[in-house]
Amino acid sequence: MDYNTPQQDVKSDLNTSAKNVVNGTEQDFRGLHESNNQEIRPETPLTHFHSFFYDLVTWKYPRASGLIFISLLSTILAFRFVNVMRYVFKAAYLLLGSVAALEYAGKHLGYKGVVSQMRPRRYYTIPRENIESIFEEIHDFLNFVVVEFQRVVFVENLFTTVARHSQLKAFVASFFGYFLIKYLPFWSLAFLGTILGFTGPYVYINNQEQIDAQINHYSDIANMKLNEARGVTEQYAGEYATRARQTASQLSEKVQSYTNRRISGEQLRHKLNPHDFPNAPTQEPVSPPQYQEHRAPILA
Question: Count of H helices and E strands in the chain?
Answer without folding.
Answer: 9, 0
